[in-house]
Amino acid sequence: MNKSLKIKQSLKLTLEKRKLQTPFVFQLKLQNLSKSDIDTLNRLFLEAKWFYNFIIADIKNRLNSKSEKLKKVEVKAPNG
């Protein structure tokens, strides 16, 4: 089997696998939250963004089983 045939077969298998998958969308209403809950959620999303950016900055070396246990990451602030 040559390389192009292997690629074609792999793409075909992927297409078949994706036909069986079902996408889901969840919508949540976050009304009537206290100010502290809103601040906590905002901080949570900010820290998730920092973690995501830290991992993808050097994905080959940082994406491993130990990355979920990180306590600190480098953050590049806009002002320096």
Characteristics:
mainly alpha; flat; 80 residues
Structure notes:
The chain has a domain at about 35-80. The longest helix has 23 residues, at about 35-55. The mean pLDDT is about 90. It has helices at about 5-20, 35-55, 60. Helix content is about 55%, strand content about 0%. The radius of gyration is 20 Å and the shape is flat. The protein has 3 helices and no strands. The protein is mainly α.
Cα-atom Rg, whole angstroms?
Answer: 20 Å
Largest sheet: none
How many helices in DSSP terms? Answer: 3
Please write the string of helix (H) and strand (E) elements. HHH
Global geometry: flat
- Give the low-confidence spans: none
Mean pLDDT value:
88
How would you summarize what this structure contains?
By secondary structure, the protein is mostly helical. It is about 55% helix and about 0% strand. The chain has a domain at about 35-80.
Write the layout of secondary structure elements.
Layout: H1 3-19, H2 35-57, H3 59-62
